[in-house]
Design goal:
Blueprint: E1 10-12, E2 19-22, E3 27-29, E4 43-44, E5 48-49, E6 55-61, E7 64-69, H1 70-78, E8 86-90, E9 103-107, H2 108-117, H3 128-139, H4 144-151, H5 155-163
Antiparallel strand pairs: 1-2, 2-3, 3-4, 5-6, 6-7, 8-9
Helix pairs in contact: 4-5
Length: about 170
């Protein structure tokens, strides 16, 4: 039996009459400038890509365009506003994947941990697999300075991995 196709779900964007976002990351408008607010056939809007790869959508209100990351608009529409100090997180760390199932509100720290866990942090020299290997080598009795040389990192970094100061979530 063939799979049942997904039925796209649309929700209004809070604070922007005439705009909706869908659970698969599309945006549509029911207004066209100059139509005096009359309802017209929905039009799928073009989205833009920012320098970090995030998708942006802009909505007009009172003659002013408000731009923001699509994931934020989607979570506002489907989940509600974030708690204090929360931002939009992408489960797979792909800023272009704005399916609702891939998005959630979370803290900056949770976002960094996700990115490290997924090997996508742009400042990390090591991957999760590297850290696992480092921990294994240290358990065999290998000296930290030798492990550091193997991975082109400092002895201090190896020490922080060993003591759990960094990369503590890696087994």
């Amino acid at each position: 039996m063939p799979p049942v196709p997904h039925r796209e779900i649309w929700k209004p964007v809070p604070g922007f009459d005439g705009y909706e976002v869908s659970d698969i990351g599309r945006v549509r408008s029911y207004r066209i400038p100059g139509c005096s607010g009359r309802s017209v056939m929905a039009r799928i809007l073009e989205l833009s890509v920012g320098p970090t790869g995030h998708i942006y959508a802009g909505f007009r209100k009172n003659g002013v365009t408000i731009n923001g990351q699509l994931g934020n608009w989607m979570l506002l529409a489907f989940v509600g506003p974030p708690a204090d100090n929360q931002e939009c997180l992408h489960a797979d760390d792909n800023p272009k994947n704005n399916k609702l199932s891939n998005l959630r509100w979370g803290t900056r720290l949770e976002n960094v941990r996700d990115r490290l866990r997924n090997g996508r942090h742009n400042l990390a020299k090591l991957t999760v697999d590297d850290v696992r290997k480092i921990k294994e080598l240290l358990k065999t009795g290998m000296y930290g300075k030798d492990v550091a040389a193997m991975f082109s990192i400092s002895g201090a970094t190896v020490s922080e991995i060993k003591t759990g100061k960094i990369w503590q979530f890696v087994d």
